[in-house]
C-alpha cells in the first residue's frame, strides 16, 4: 500500500513539474498584458517537435555525446520556441494592444488552430514516438517503481523554475518586467522600453512551455500535434488555481492540480466500484477549474480585492 | 529648454487643451495653476507623450518631441513625476529607482542612487522595504528621487504637495528649490497657489483648457484675474489655501 502511495506521489510530482512549467507562461503573459495566451499549449507541443528535429539532425550515440546533445537540444528548443513566441506577440498581439481585451484573445485562439494545423500538415496527424531526453533506468524506491526519467524531469523543472524566480527577483530586467506588469504607463513614463519588456516575457514563457513539452514527451514517449490542447487547458487551470499573474501561484497550482488529478484518478475506480475507470482522469482538472472560478476566482495567491485578477469577470 | 507652441491635446476624440503657448527656461521654476479639471495634468501628459496631440509643437532642448514615444522623451532628459506619484507598490524602494535607470548611459546606478539617498536619507533607511509600506511623504520623496535617476534637465512635478503635512510640503519644496539652483528646470503643477507662486519664477493659469493669464510669479500673485480663474472653475477656496 505504501508502495502505491509513494508511486503516485512520484507520478504527481512529475506531472506537476510539467504543469507548473507551462502554467508559468500563462501567468507571466497575463501578468503583463492581461491576456490569456491560448496559443501557449501549442507552443508546448511545438517544443516537442523541435526537439525531435534536433534528435534526427544530431543523431547522437550514447553516453557523454548523448548528454551533450540533449543539453544542446534543450537550449535550441528554448531559443526557437521563445523566438516564435516573440514573433507571435509582435504580429498577432501588438497591433491589438489598445483594442478591447477580447480581440487579442480571439487572435490567440486563431493562432492556436493555425499552429496545430501547420504541424499536422508537415509532420502528419499521427502520434510519433519520442526518445526521452534522459536515460530510462527503473529504480526501486520503498516499493515504488520510478525511473530516472521522472527524476530528470522533476530536477530539470525545479532548476528552471528556480532560475526564473531568481531572474525575476534579482536581475535588472526582472525588476523592469515586474514594473511593467504593475503599471505599464508609468514604466514607460520613466523611460522603460515597454516593448522590450513584453518581448522578454514572450521569449521566456514560451521557451519554458516548450521545454515542458519536451519533458512531457520524454515522460510518455509519444507526441502528436493536438497534445497541447488538453495539457494547455490543464496548465491554464493550474495558473488560475494558483492565482493568475502570480509566479509562485503557478508553481504551487501546477503541483496541487497534479496531486488532485493523480490521486483522484487512482481513487476513482475504488470509489465508484469500477463504474468510472481511470480514463476519466481529465474530469479532475476541469472540476477544479469550475470550483475555483465559483468560490475563489482570484486563486490561492491572487489579490482578493482586485477586480483585475478576476479573469473571467470583465472578459466575457 | 522647453517650448510649447499652439498646443491642442486630449484623450481619444475628446479635446481638453487648446491654444497653449508655454516656455520654460534653463534653471527656471515655472508653475501651472488652475482649478480642478482645467487641464493641468493633461498639459504635463501632452509634454511627456502620454496623450493625443491634435495641433501644435513641443520642443525640448531644441528637438521636436511632439510625436515621440514617452520612453524616448524620458530618455532625452525630461522626467515626469506623475499625478498620484505612481510608485510601483510591489517593488522595493531601491527597485523603483532601478526601473528609472535601466538601459541608460551616463552615471552609474550606484552613483545616482547615492545622490538620491543624500537628498532623501529616509530612502536609504528604507531601501529594501516594499514601496507600498512607505508613508505618503516618503512615496513623494521616492517619486522625486526616481525622477532624478534619469539625470534630467527638466522635471515635471504634478501636485507634489497633495495629501502631505505642512512640514513635509516645506521639505519637498525646499528640495525643488535646490534642484532649480543646481540647474534643473522645473515645471510644477500645484493646487496650493500661494506656495507655488512663492516658489516659482513664472506662472501660467489655465481655465477650461486655455491659458487665461500668465506672468512673473509676484505679478501674477497680485493679478485679480487669477482669482477669477478659480471662481470660474467653481473652486473658490483654492486661491486662499
TrEMBL record, chain A:
A GO biological-process term: D-alanine transmembrane transport
Any one Gene Ontology cellular component term annotated for this protein: plasma membrane
Keywords: Amino-acid transport, Cell inner membrane, Cell membrane, Membrane, Transmembrane, Transmembrane helix, Transport
Primary location: membrane
Bilayer topology annotation: Multi-pass membrane protein
Record InterPro entries: ABC_transp_permease, BCAA_transport_permease
Family statement drawn from the similarity comment of this UniProt entry: Belongs to the binding-protein-dependent transport system permease family. LivHM subfamily.
Name of the protein described by the UniProt record: High-affinity branched-chain amino acid transport system permease protein LivH
Originating organism: Methylobrevis pamukkalensis
Encoding gene (name): livH_3
Automatic annotation (TrEMBL), chain B:
Family label: Belongs to the ABC transporter superfamily.
Keyword ATP-binding in annotation: yes
Keywords assigned by UniProt, alphabetized: Amino-acid transport, ATP-binding, Nucleotide-binding, Transport
Entry keyword Nucleus: no
Residue ranges occupied by any ABC transporter domain in the UniProt entry: 2-233
Protein name according to UniProt: High-affinity branched-chain amino acid transport ATP-binding protein LivF
Pfam families reported for this sequence: ABC_tran (PF00005)
Listed GO biological process terms: L-amino acid transport
Highest taxon, organism lineage: Bacteria
First and last residue of the signal peptide: none
Stored InterPro entries: AAA+_ATPase, ABC_transporter-like_ATP-bd, ABC_transporter-like_CS, BCAA_Transport_ATP-bd_LivF, P-loop_NTPase
GO molecular function: ATP binding; ATP hydrolysis activity; branched-chain amino acid transmembrane transporter activity
Amino acid at each position: 500500500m505504501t508502495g502505491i502511495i509513494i508511486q503516485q506521489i512520484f507520478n504527481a510530482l512529475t506531472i506537476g513539474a510539467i504543469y507548473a512549467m507551462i502554467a508559468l507562461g500563462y501567468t507571466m503573459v497575463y501578468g503583463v498584458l492581461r491576456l490569456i495566451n491560448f496559443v501557449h499549449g501549442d507552443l508546448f507541443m511545438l517544443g516537442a517537435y523541435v526537439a525531435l528535429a534536433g534528435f534526427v539532425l544530431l543523431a547522437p550515440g550514447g553516453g557523454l555525446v548523448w548528454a551533450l546533445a540533449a543539453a544542446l537540444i534543450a537550449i535550441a528548443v528554448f531559443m526557437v520556441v521563445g523566438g516564435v513566441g516573440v514573433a507571435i506577440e509582435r504580429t498577432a498581439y501588438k497591433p491589438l494592444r489598445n483594442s478591447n481585451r477580447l480581440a487579442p484573445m480571439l487572435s490567440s485562439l486563431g493562432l492556436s488552430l493555425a499552429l496545430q494545423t501547420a504541424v499536422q500538415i508537415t509532420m502528419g496527424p499521427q502520434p510519433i514516438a519520442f526518445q526521452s531526453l534522459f536515460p530510462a533506468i527503473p529504480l526501486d524506491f520503498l516499493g515504488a517503481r520510478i525511473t530516472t526519467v521522472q527524476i530528470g524531469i522533476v530536477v530539470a523543472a525545479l532548476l528552471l523554475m528556480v532560475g526564473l524566480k531568481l531572474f525575476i527577483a534579482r536581475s535588472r530586467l526582472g525588476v523592469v518586467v515586474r514594473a511593467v506588469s504593475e503599471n505599464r504607463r508609468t514604466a514607460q513614463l520613466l523611460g522603460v522600453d515597454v516593448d522590450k519588456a513584453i518581448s522578454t516575457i514572450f521569449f521566456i514563457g514560451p521557451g519554458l512551455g516548450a521545454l515542458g513539452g519536451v519533458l512531457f514527451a520524454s515522460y510518455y514517449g509519444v507526441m502528436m500535434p493536438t497534445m497541447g490542447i488538453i495539457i494547455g487547458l490543464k496548465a491554464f487551470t493550474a495558473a488560475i488555481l494558483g492565482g493568475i499573474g502570480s509566479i509562485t501561484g503557478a508553481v504551487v497550482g501546477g503541483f496541487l492540480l497534479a496531486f488532485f488529478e493523480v490521486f483522484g484518478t487512482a481513487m476513482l475506480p475504488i470509489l465508484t466500484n469500477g463504474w468510472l475507470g481511470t480514463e476519466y482522469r481529465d474530469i479532475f482538472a476541469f472540476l477544479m477549474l469550475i470550483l475555483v472560478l465559483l468560490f475563489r476566482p482570484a486563486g490561492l495567491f491572487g489579490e482578493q480585492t482586485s477586480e483585475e485578477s478576476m479573469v473571467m469577470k470583465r472578459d466575457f | 529648454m522647453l517650448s510649447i507652441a499652439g498646443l491642442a491635446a486630449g484623450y481619444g476624440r475628446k479635446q481638453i487643451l487648446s491654444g497653449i503657448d508655454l516656455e520654460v527656461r534653463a534653471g527656471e521654476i515655472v508653475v501651472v495653476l488652475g482649478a480642478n479639471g482645467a487641464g493641468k495634468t493633461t498639459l504635463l501628459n501632452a509634454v511627456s507623450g502620454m496623450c493625443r496631440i491634435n495641433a501644435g509643437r513641443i520642443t525640448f532642448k531644441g528637438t521636436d518631441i511632439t510625436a515621440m514615444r514617452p520612453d524616448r522623451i524620458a530618455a532625452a532628459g525630461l522626467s515626469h513625476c506623475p499625478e498620484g506619484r505612481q510608485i510601483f507598490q510591489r517593488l522595493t524602494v531601491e527597485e523603483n529607482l532601478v526601473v528609472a535607470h535601466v538601459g541608460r548611459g551616463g552615471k552609474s546606478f550606484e552613483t545616482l542612487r547615492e545622490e538620491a539617498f543624500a537628498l532623501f536619507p529616509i530612502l536609504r533607511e528604507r531601501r529594501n522595504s516594499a514601496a507600498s509600506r512607505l508613508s505618503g511623504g516618503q512615496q513623494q520623496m521616492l517619486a522625486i528621487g526616481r525622477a532624478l535617476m534619469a539625470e534630467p534637465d527638466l522635471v515635471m512635478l504634478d501636485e507634489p504637495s497633495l495629501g502631505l503635512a505642512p512640514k513635509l510640503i516645506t521639505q519637498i519644496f525646499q528640495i525643488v528649490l535646490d534642484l532649480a539652483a543646481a540647474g534643473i528646470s522645473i515645471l510644477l503643477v500645484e493646487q496650493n497657489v500661494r506656495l507655488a507662486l512663492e516658489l516659482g519664477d513664472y506662472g501660467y493659469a489655465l481655465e477650461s483648457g486655455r491659458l487665461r493669464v500668465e506672468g512673473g510669479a509676484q505679478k501674477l500673485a497680485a493679478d485679480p484675474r487669477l482669482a477669477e480663474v478659480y471662481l470660474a472653475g467653481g473652486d473658490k477656496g483654492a486661491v486662499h489655501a
